[in-house]
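Whether sequence alone determines local backbone shape is best considered at the level of individual chains. When preparing material for the folding task, we compiled for one chain both its residues and its backbone structure tokens. The sequence in question and its structure tokens are set out directly beneath this paragraph.
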Amino acid sequence: MALSSRLELRQGQSLVMTPQLQQAIKLLQLSNMELLEFVEGELERNPLLEHSEGEDQAERRTGNSEEKPDQQAVEGNESGDASTPDDANLDLTTNQVQRDTESVFDTDAENVFPESAEPRPAPVGDNWSTSGSGGIAGGAEGGVNLEAFVAEEISLQDHLSSQLQLAISDPVKRLISDHLVDMVDEGGYVRGDLEGLSTRLGAPMELIEETLATLQTLEPAGVFARDLAECLTLQLKDNNRFDPAIEAFIANLDLLAARDLTGLKRACDVTDEDLADMISEIKMLEPKPGLKFGKSSVQAIVPDVFVRQRPDGSWLVELNNETLPKVLVNQAYYATVSKTTKLEKDKTYLHDCLQTANWLVKSLDQRARTILKVSKEIVKQQDAFLTRGVQFLRPLNLKTVADAIEMHESTVSRVTSNKYMATSRGNFELKYFFTSSIPSSGAGEAHSSEAVRHRIKQLIDNEAVTKILSDDKIVELLKVESIDIARRTVAKYRESMRIPSSVQRRREKKMALSQ
């Protein structure tokens, strides 16, 4: 077969995502915090972008704000110094206090109040700042720097290292202790191979075990444990509560996890009352003592959409404008710079910056409109939930909302990711309203899986001690309410809500009654 080269012309169609389209899709699935971080990065990179100013800032910038009489400067002395009425009143008050002090104590005011000789705080806006070491330092805009008053958070490693100075004096053990402190995780447990540490440091295993036993006496009680049983043992020993019965209890924690109270009572050789006391005492211990230090602050959920009920019963859906970044394209700056630009690469750079800035503003506006449109349709579909509660949550999927607002399902999926809605019933992620459908046993409408899960929890919470509901019994009760559900589905929902089985619930409630 001979080989030859030739040219062919083919025509075809393909979907190509432009960088602008990729940016719009990326912004659509970002949360409000991620969006703010992205916009701040764009503001630093693009000189044509700037924050959108409020009305007050715009008036001050253009010089159109009307000066009020109490804000106008008054003429000072002949040297041209000016002072505000607040400064004049403050000077009069200070002089009066100084004269009263000198007449009462028969001495200068500086001898009675040495700090009065310090420079007087100068008013800056509505705040005060001082230049002395004992004063409150002003912030970048003249305000009080609150960060100066925030105490530095101590980590677990720092807390343990500070105790080593008194606990261990031997240099060899101190070296081993430093390595063991580095092996402690955030919960306070030693994670790592002690034999590997022995090989790496060239120290005998007996010395490492001895050093570890000394470190286990440090605060908080339970640190440097290698497992949960050892952690609880250290805390019980610290409380002087480690007796043979509780030792057998710790050795059989697997029976407690399986809720086999009968087997646990037999293993500990105690009565029901003693077993209940030991369980209560174990519950008071801290399974992760290291979490007392270095806790990360919990960020509150900031809703993207607010839903309020109007007087006529309809729902008002509006965006949370405080979470939306406001940016503008500085056309005046672009016009000024483009006039003086001569190099071709500079012109290309300015054109790219302008195009990027315009697309960013357009993408942010499109993102806000899309979120609002999807939220309105969700509120329309789940009106019964907002009015009457979770048991009236309707089954809903992405296709239903996408068809109603004439968008693609992938767009709706991106909009509902990491977005929250504030309602009269609490804050919910937008994906919360999309639930699978469970058919009805009668001719009625299908039921939402979330509503069925809520109903199962209600039935279990209201069950009597002498009449514990099995999964089969729950299926029968739900069928009476026209909910056609299988037993394995009930078991799956129950386990997802961390509700034990009927046998385990019966044991727990009998134990609670015996107490």
